[in-house]
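Worked problem 6 (solution included).
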Amino acid sequence: MATADRPAPEGIAVGVDVGGSGIKVSVVDVVHGTLIGPRLRIATPQPSTPDVVVPVIVRTVRRALKEAGIDRSDVAVGVGMPAVVIDGVTRSAANIDPMWLDYDLGSHLRQAMKRPVYVLNDADAAGLAEMRFGAGVGERGVVFVLTLGTGLGSGMFNDGVLVPNSELGHMEIRGRDAERRSAAVARTRRGLSWKAWASDLDEHLHAIDKLFSPNLIILGGGVSKNADKFIPRLTIRPRVVPATLRNDAGIVGAAMAAAERYVDGDPTLKR
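Solution. The predicted structure is:
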């Protein structure tokens, strides 16, 4: 089980953050949570089926390693996916192409890249980074890291330990997935003011508070740079703060998770 406060192993890893609009890749210093190579961003191919996206990931990882001046076959790769991920298999496909359902991404990437690969939920990856290097450092009890983007992803932690695949964007509110109103893209898609969108987000956060009673909620994704426009409008009981790693959190967290699994000798990385 990954933890947020466990000492990171010395070394480096590659982090990959797959999103609906872009695929971001960089080499990461997993000790300090910093990017040590260029931050590459490739537009997510459309349609974003596995047979198209996997080669893009492979090429971009190789490019990231080359541009960082790294030529080692033991550098692990962590990949954050917008899906429930169990043992390297994407088990849901709510905001990605349906062909990802039950797709063994871990095995396909290991075969293509001939190096250790670990796949996890993208919000879980971002949460790991924020809990160790960002707004969640030292926080105990229940903490949520919510990524607001095309959908709403959730990373859930209890005393720094990740509870994977919480997927709270798919809670039902008013008869449909909550993220249809609370995700960042919902504001622009519906042409809402910050005030109106904050009200929709607030309703979702109240539902989360009712179920889990968190001590802290960290709001991430690109929209976090505008935190002053909506966080002061929220009325929920727990503290709410913006993420500090923003769009780098998914890259850093994915790299962290892969490096730790590799050091631990996790056999799934070499399956």
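Discussion: The chain is about 30% helix and 25% strand.
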